[in-house]
């Protein structure tokens, strides 16, 4: 990790641009991190890449930065959605953080028949995604969608998007990560999604429905049962290695 | 996850064997889980596989189980060590939990030049590994070793053990997961270890030393900087897919 502070902002970040700071950002930069006028930080907005900026004014309730130069081009993640069934708060936070670090483009909480948690705090999860992108050197922040029923998401499934479906009924069976590359070749720019089931697994009806789709590809995540948060990171790794930007 | 309670015990688990319960286990089974005489649970001890057992006596401070039948054979993980530099408490706990879930055989906290945390609670981490094995349906619990200096671990490195070394200096370079399979072929029963650096990265001296070893193989975990806990799960996935028991 870099020692330089990185912040996600909504402002445009052209060279020479002046960036006003929100109260929260001013508190963080000048109160917590003790920066003063002349100090350098890094900014990104999800559109213009990463830029370096100098502190011009440092106040308790606000301040101004001046954009100096582009330090990193915009790097978009692959067109990959992560669908997961929310679990306990800390583990849901963790899944969102990891999805942002590992390069998912969109994070979609879905309610399944066995999902325990019927509510999410979308704004808090979005803030977690921002923080993860700030920490991991990303130039882009995935959007956290609102909670939707899995059945409805599948009703409206986009025709060209493939779905990697982590089927815990495959635990103990011969693994099938080859399913991904088998008939499909490299992903390239093809749109994909990963679906991680709830702690209690999918219902038989859900599993049957998923297995019936041409766009759905079952994979195994090894011979042990993984918790949902572990499964999310493992599935993102598997996908990124075989079809994404780790290859 | 199974609805049946699974417990790790130290006792032998032959058919017909009587298993006395510790005070903690009795409290958990009869106080927390509300089991009574005649109820069935699952036990494993890391030697005999998984067995089903019946509650014979249920007391507040103890009790007895009777082993009925083997339900799962002993499944050893591959001979894989996970070496990592301890970080903040919650993330260190997480790494141990995930290593146990994902099938590491031994978990070795190592102190590097930039490691923040110079102490670990080995007994607490071992308890996390046990709990993870109970949850994930494992029949084996990895040992959590005491904290050792990385330099000393490398001084005494076993001649035949390969080391996958996640070098964050490779972030942005072309990835090299092929390094693992390139000259090496499938891992089979070969002993391996994975090394995850601290949040601050390895020192230049450490990195140079690691690069100098024939047994050390550098891999990239993609174009973004991963937190140490994310890197641990991603590295375990990569290894298990290419050389371990997910293949």
Characterization of this structure:
Two copies of one chain form a homodimer. By secondary structure, chain A is an alpha/beta fold. Chain A has two domains: 6-72, Beta Barrel (Ribosomal Protein L25, Chain P), CATH 2.40.240; 80-242, Alpha/beta knot (3-Layer(aba) Sandwich). Chain A contains seven helices and twelve strands. Chain A has helices spanning 23-32, 89-102, 122-136, 150-155, 178-182, 204-211, 228-242, and strands at 6-8, 18-20, 40-44, 50-58, 63-72, 80-84, 106-111, 143-144, 148-149, 162-166, 192-196, 216-219. In chain A, strands 6, 7, 8, 9, 10, 11 and 12 form a seven-stranded parallel β-sheet that branches. In chain A, helix 3 links the parallel strand 7 (106-111) and strand 8. In chain A, helix 2 (89-102) crosses helix 3 (122-136) and helix 2 (89-102) runs parallel beside helix 7 (228-242). The two termini of chain A are 22 Å apart. Residues 181-186 of chain A have low confidence and may be disordered. At the A-B interface, helix 2 and helix 7 of A face helix 2 and helix 7 of B.
The oligomerization state is homodimer
Work out the count of structural domains of chain A.
2
Low-confidence stretches of chain A: 181-186
Counting DSSP H or I runs of 4 or more residues, the number of helices of chain A is: 7
- Mean pLDDT across the residues of chain A is 88
Structural class of chain A: alpha/beta
Quick one: how many beta strands of chain A? 12
Described by the principal axes of the CA atoms, the overall outline of chain A is elongated
Strand content of chain A: 15-25%
Q: What is the C-alpha radius of gyration of chain A, as a whole number of Å?
A: 20 Å
Q: Give the distance, in angstroms, between the N- and C-terminal Cα atoms of chain A.
A: 22 Å
Q: What is the helix content of chain A?
A: 25-40%
Largest sheet of chain A: 7 strands, parallel
Question: Biggest interface and which pair forms it?
Answer: A-B, 37 and 37 residues
| CATH homologous superfamily title of the largest domain in chain A | SPOUT methyltransferase, trefoil knot domain
